[in-house]
Each structure stands twice: as C-alpha cells, then as structure tokens.
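Aim 2 progress. For Cell wall-associated hydrolase, NlpC family, the working sequence is reproduced below.
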Amino acid sequence: MKKYLLSTALTATVLFTPAMADAALGDQTLKQGMRHADVTELQQWLKGEGFLHGSIDGIFGPVTAKAVRSYQNSAGIGTDGIAGPQTFGAMGIRNSSVNASASAPNQAAFSRTLRQGERGNDVRQLQQTLKRKGHHSGSIDGVFGPVTASSVRSFQRSAGIDVDGIAGPRTFLALNGGSVKSATSSQTTSNSSTGFSDKLISNARHYIGSPYVWGGTSPSGFDCSGYLQYVFNKAGKSIPRTVASIYKASSKVSSPRVGDLVFFETYTSGPSHAGIYLGGGQFIHAGSSTGVTIANMSSSYWKQRYLGAGRLN
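Predicted structure tokens for this construct:
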C-alpha cells in the first residue's frame, strides 16, 4: 500500500521499482541513507504522531532518524533510530506477508486502514473483495478514488456499521465475515447522521496541511478549536469557540463514531485539545507542531492524554 504523495521534484529524486511500489510499509528495515517511498510513508506516520518536525521528502536522514529514536523511546523499545520489525510492530504495522499467511484461506488480509488517495496492493485486494461481495462495479486498479469510497460506503451500509467510506478494522472484520454491531442507536439515526458526518469529514480533510496559528480561525492558520468551529460551520452546524465550552456542550459517549469529537488533556488540566474522530482509532485535528493532520489515538502521546468522546446533537 502506497500513498504516492510525492511532489514532482521528489519523484525525480526518489527512485523505486514496481516491486517496491507494491510492498507494504513494514516489509523492510528502513535506516539512514535510504531513499524510498516507504520512507515517505514512515515520515507521514511519524509526523502525524507528532514525532517528526522535518519535511516529508522520502529521504531517511538525521532528522528522520531522530524522529524514529524519539518514537522508540516513547514506546519503550530499543532506541537505535532504525525502523525495523520491532519498531513497526510497536506502531501496529506488520509485515504484509506475515498477515497474509496468518489469514484464513478465503479471507482478505489487510495490514492497515485504507482511505481515499491511497494506492497499492492493499487497495487492489480491497476492491477485489468488495467486487466479490457485489459492492464494487469499478475497475480493480489499486487506486482508492471516489468510486472505491462509494463501494466501501455501500458495503458499510449493508453491514450496519458506521458509513464513512474508510476501510478500517470494523470494515475489514465485516468483510471477513465477522459480526459487527452498528455504533448507532438505530438505523434511522444512522441514516440521518451519515450525511452530516460525510460532509463534516470531507470539509475537515480539505484543510489537511493548513498551518497552526494560536487563535487562528481560517485556512491561513487554525488553532485547535478554531479549526473545529470552522469545519463544523462549513458543514452547517454552529459550535462554541473554545475546547472547554465544546466539551461542556457535547453529550458524552463511551465509544466514538465517525464525526464525534475526541478530547484530550494537554497543556493544562481538563479538556484543552480536541479533534474529529475518523474511525479506525484515528482523528483529524489542528496540532500545534503539525498543523491540520491525522493522528492515531493509540499512539503513546495521545493515549495517555485521552479524556473521552463527545457528540454534538
């Protein structure tokens, strides 16, 4: 699975073969001196978790090695600056061949969450599985575009799970025949909330890469709550300006569904940071060191600061 988020200049610099393009992150050890699409993906993961403060350029240099060491230290594993099996295991990224061999004969093996913009064998396998189940009429091209997202949403509706067009753990479990209960209280509630959630998530993703600015409330610069207020307003819902007031206005839920808010205690006691839950343990937010980005709630940083989830009705 590859994201192929390479600029024209980077494409000229980072050389990779078709075999490399088909590999999944975690299939090889990455270390200083390497230039590879897998390094780009590693950097994206590290930046999303708040460990990388350099550029995403596909080059494993000293800055990337420092980010890897920082993550390794937080995860309590060997701190060598090399991204190998132990590091990828701690990240929750496994070798794709191991995943495949461990799967039941007729089950699809997926190594991580898939969403629009991604490419590779994992996407191709997802498309094949969806086609086999009658939910994908497009081509099997390994490109996760609008047609594949629509196919995922079609399957999610039929399986009675959150409809977000993102293929995460719950979707994979359902695809492989597992029993998954809907996170919504009723099908009617699910149908009525899906349209707003889809619009909200689409708006939220549109501003990925926008910089962080303290007090910022526009795409030229957002702070945490300014970003939330902006994208909720774009989706047609007004919300309070500060994280504390948003937290107070929300109905607390034990398990977030797509479009819910997730709250964290960061620089001060009580709710001081928040993001929008995307499903699969991921959320989108305006981070002070990253700008608008997607992060994983199970990372060591966010997991220990998580306060809970809330829903704005």
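The domain at 8-91 is CATH 1.10.101.10 (Muramoyl-pentapeptide Carboxypeptidase; domain 1). This observation will guide construct design in the next reporting period.
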